[in-house]
Amino acid sequence: MKAATPVRRAAGIDARARRIILILLTFSTLTLAVVWLRPTEPIDPEEALSDFRQLKIHLAEAWANMEWIAGHRGVDLEEADRRTTAALREVKSVREAQELLISFVRSFRDPHFYARPVEPSLIEKLIQGGGSEAPPVVEATMSASRACKALGFRSRDLGFRLRFASQKGFEPVISRDENPFEAGILAIPGGRRVALLRLAHFGEDGYPEVCREVWEEYRGLMEAPCTNGWCGSFRTMIRNRLLAYIEDRIRTMRQAGYEMLVVDLTGNGGGTDWVQATAQIVSPRKLACNRSSFVRHPHWQAMLEQMRTDLGAELAQEDIAAPVREKLAAADGNLEALIAQTKAPCNRMPMWEGEPPEGGCTNLVVGESYTCGLFPYLEPGSLPGVGRPRLLFKAFANEYNESVNDRPVAVLIDNGTASASEDFGSILQDNGAAVIVGTRSYGAGCGFVNGGIPLVLEHVGLRVMAPDCIRFRKDGMNEIEGITPDIDLGWEGDSLKERTAKVIAALADL
C-alpha cells in the first residue's frame, strides 16, 4: 500500500542543480514545509517559469480541492497565476524561486497541499519512484526496538492535555498496564459521572510500545523479510491491538459506571484508516459514512482496477452465499462506473485564466464512493466467505466490535484536531451520534491515498504534493472547512486550566 510512487517531472534538469547546502529554515506540522537554501545558486527565470507551468498543469489534473477553493472560497486563481508569473520573471536565484512557489502553494490554505525543497542528489531518485532512501528491510531476527525504529515508530505524548487528572473527583482507570490510552471517570456538577477517553493520535506509528509488544508475536509468523518499508500485515496487527485496547478501556469504565463517554481529540492531528473502526466502537448507534470523491487520474484508475481484479477473485468463488454475491456484484458494477470516470479527465487549465473548466466539466469522480469504501455501512460479519472484505468496507481491514459504548457521546475538538480526526468527528456528528464540543477543527480534510500523486520541479528543486481526495459532509460541505462544534466554547487565548473548566461546565449542561 505504501510502495514508492513514481513522481511526475518538469522538463529538463541542469547539472548545476546538484549543488545544494541543507539548512532547515522553517517547519510546520501540517504544511510540512522545509527549505533547502541555495543562496548563491543562480537560475534562469525561464527555467523557473517552465517549472511553474508544469505545476499548474499538475494541479489542474491532480488537485482535488482546486474547484472547491476557487468556487466555494472565491480564491482568484487567475490573479494568483498572474502575480506569481510576474514575480518569477524577476528571480535571480533558486532560493527566490523556491520561496515564491512555496508562497503560491500556501496562499490556497489547503493543509495537505505543500511544496518541499529537495536535495538535488535525490531528485532523480524521486522521479524514478525510489524515494529519498531505500526502504528498510525488516527481518524476524531483529529485536523489537530495532524493527519498530526502522518502521518509523516514535513516542508521542498520549496523555490528556486538558487538566482532567487534576480535578477533584477524577478516578483514573487502569484496566491493563500496557494499555496506552489514558482514561478516567470524572464526577461533574449535577452528580453525573462521565467517562473520559483520550485519543491523542490516530497513526499507529505513535505507539512504539504496542509495536514492540506485537512484534514478539508477529516475528514468528514471518515467512520472508519485509522489504517495502511498510509491512502491512504487521501494521494491521498493531491497529487491531490498539482497537482492542480502546474497547478494553470502555468496558472497564462501563463496569465502573458512567452516564456519558467523552472522547478527547484535542490536538489529534490524524493518522490512518483505523479511525473508522474506532468511531464504530464508541458510537452507541450504527454509523453510515459520508460520501467521498477523488480526482480523475491514472493514479486512481490503477487503484480501482486492482480493486476490481481482487473483487473478481472473490466473485469467482463458488461457495459464496447469494446475499453476499449480490453485494459483491453491486460493488463490481460500482467500481466499473467509477473507473470509467477516471478515464475521462477534465481540462481545468482554463481556470488559471479565470474561465470555467472546459465544457463545464469537473475533474472529480462522482458516484457511489464513501469515506468507508464502496458502501456507506456494512455490519461486521455480513460478508462471510469473502477473503478481503475491506474491498467493500474499509473498516473490515480491522477487527472491532460495534457500539462497545452504549451511552451518549461527546467529542472534544480544537484547532489541532485535523485530517483523520476530522473524519472521526464528522461521521459521529453527521449521524447524530455525538455532541461536538470545543472550537472549530483545523480543516485539513482528506489527504493522499496510496502515496498520492507527487510532482518534482527539477529546476527549482521542489517536491509538491496536493490532496487527491475529498470527504464531503452530510450537508455537502468539504471537510477542508473544518468541523463546527455543536457547543463552541470560544476558548482561543484561554489557558488549559480555563479550557478544562469550560469543558466541564458544558458537559454539566448537556
Plain-language structure description:
With 510 residues, this protein is an alpha/beta fold. Among the domains are: 1-133 and 351-365 and 451-475, no CATH class; 298-344 and 371-400, no CATH class. Helices cover 34% and strands 10% of the residues. The chain has 13 helices and 14 strands. The strands form three sheets. Strands 3-4-5-6-9-10-14 form a seven-stranded mixed sheet, sandwiched between helices. The chain has a four-stranded mixed sheet with strand order 1-11-12-2, sandwiched between helices. β4 and β5 form a beta hairpin. It is globular. Residues 1-6 and 9-37 have low confidence and may be disordered.
- Biggest pleated-sheet summary: 7 strands, mixed
Spatial order of strands in the largest sheet: 3-4-5-6-9-10-14
Structural class given helices, strands, pairing? Answer: alpha/beta
Overall average pLDDT: 90
The value of Rg in angstroms is: 24 Å
- Whole-Å distance between the termini? 43 Å
In terms of DSSP E residues, the strand content is 5-15%
Portion in helices: 25-40%
Number of helices: 13
* Helix-strand topology string: EHHHHEHHEEEHHEHEHHEEHEEEEEH
Number of strands: 14
| Low-confidence region ranges | 1-6, 9-37
Shape: globular
